[in-house]
């Protein structure tokens, strides 16, 4: 088996173990068993458990940041971009990316290494959102009293908070998380002059 194949198998196994067992119960031994490789291969390719999980998250995060950047730099109206971003949220919850992200955010509260990495990843997302706000402003969309930084902070917080609550199974008729996020697209259309009174 080629080294690249082994590394890929390990990442796949890490995702399986993390989604099945959660961060606290996941061990490199369990990952090695799932990947059917010697434990030494985990440490050879990735080092520690946290390095392994961060490698998994880093690869997904880079891919999804590129996807989001391509969406928001397109000529599609911003309200439609927002709707597609909500579709992406559903995909990312389903794929397990959101679970891995949230698990590692929680781990970052007590690990300087993980916390530093997570802040860098989240700053990447905030950068994409800042660019969206700046493009909207340059096209004549009023951000009202908000700066582009504040818009990015609010949007980022809304999605991260919704993701946490979705993972906890809190979405209900009384707490319509996805529906509320989608309606922001209607507000954007209204601000851009495409909405009805």
Radius of gyration: 19 Å
What is the assigned CATH homologous superfamily of the largest domain? Tetracycline Repressor, domain 2
Mean pLDDT, to the nearest integer, reads 92
What sequence of helices (H) and strands (E) makes up the elements? HHHHHHHHH
Structural class: mainly alpha
Query: Which CATH class of the largest domain applies here?
Result: Mainly Alpha
Count of individual domains: 2
Shape: elongated
Number of helices: 9
Q: Main beta sheet: strand number and arrangement?
A: none
Terminal Cα span: 63 Å
Q: What is the helix content?
A: over 70%
Low-confidence regions: none
Which CATH-level-2 architecture of the largest domain?
Orthogonal Bundle
Percentage of β-strand residues: under 5%
CATH topology of the largest domain: Tetracycline Repressor, domain 2
Topology, number of strands: 0
Mind explaining what this structure looks like?
The chain has 197 residues and is mainly α. The protein has two domains: 1-47, Arc Repressor Mutant, subunit A (Orthogonal Bundle), CATH 1.10.10; 50-191, Tetracycline Repressor, domain 2. The protein contains nine helices and no strands. Helix 4 (49-72) crosses helix 6 (97-107). The chain is elongated and about 60 Å long. The protein starts with a helix and ends in a 6-residue tail after the last helix.
What topology emerges from the helices and strands here?
Elements: H1 3-21, H2 28-35, H3 39-46, H4 49-72, H5 78-95, H6 97-107, H7 112-138, H8 148-167, H9 177-191
Helix pairs in contact: 1-2, 1-4, 2-3, 3-4, 4-6, 4-7, 5-9, 7-8
């Amino acid at each position: 088996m080629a080294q690249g194949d082994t590394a890929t198998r390990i990442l796949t196994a890490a995702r399986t173990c993390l989604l099945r067992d959660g961060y606290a119960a996941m061990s490199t031994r369990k990952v090695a068993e799932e990947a059917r490789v010697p434990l030494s291969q985990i440490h050879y390719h990735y080092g520690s458990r946290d390095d392994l999980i961060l490698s998994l998250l880093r690869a997904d995060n880079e891919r999804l940041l590129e996807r989001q950047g391509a969406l928001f730099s397109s000529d599609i109206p911003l309200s439609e971009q927002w709707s597609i971003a909500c579709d992406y949220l559903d995909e990312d919850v389903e794929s397990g990316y959101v679970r891995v992200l949230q698990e590692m955010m929680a781990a970052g509260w007590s690990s300087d290494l993980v916390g530093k990495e997570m802040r860098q990843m989240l700053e990447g997302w905030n950068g994409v959102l800042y660019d969206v706000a700046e493009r909207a402003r340059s096209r004549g969309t009023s951000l009202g009293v908000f700066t582009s930084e504040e818009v990015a902070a609010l949007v980022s917080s809304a999605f991260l908070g919704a993701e946490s609550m979705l993972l906890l199974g809190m979405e209900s008729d009384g707490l319509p998380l996805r529906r509320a996020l989608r309606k922001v697209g209607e507000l954007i259309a209204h601000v851009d002059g495409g909405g009805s009174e």
